[in-house]
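TASK: fixed-backbone design
INPUT:
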């Protein structure tokens, strides 16, 4: 699968690399970089974090959040792509789910069981 991951935490990036290594992975740490990719490349799965730049519980209106990417996805060739929002920011994550629609699922990152893909 071709997978896009928006994440700024180096430890989380390593977890993604370790557990999804058999797939083709594109990583972004900035929202505008991810917007450019979802606009031009078709993905099989997209993982989005809400808070970037190490800022916890950032307002969704801030330009460098996963919410900015989420708003664009329905306007791109990835509008039907499976989206996993892996944010610990419940308000921001819920806003992302609302703008993406039924293709979005929300999970807290710390609760992912990588062996079976389920929450603990």
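OUTPUT:
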């Amino acid at each position: 699968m071709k997978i896009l991951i928006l994440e700024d935490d180096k430890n989380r990036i390593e977890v993604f690399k370790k557990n999804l290594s058999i797939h083709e992975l594109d990583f972004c740490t900035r929202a505008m970089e991810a917007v450019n990719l979802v606009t031009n490349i078709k993905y099989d799965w997209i993982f989005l974090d809400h808070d970037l730049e190490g800022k916890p519980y950032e307002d969704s209106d801030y330009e460098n959040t996963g919410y900015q990417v989420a708003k664009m996805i329905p306007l791109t060739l990835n509008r039907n792509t499976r989206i996993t929002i892996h944010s610990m920011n419940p308000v921001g994550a819920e806003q992302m789910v609302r703008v993406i629609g039924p293709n979005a699922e929300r999970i807290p990152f710390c609760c992912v069981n990588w062996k079976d893909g389920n929450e603990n």
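COMMENT: Confidence is low (pLDDT under 50) at residues 111-120.
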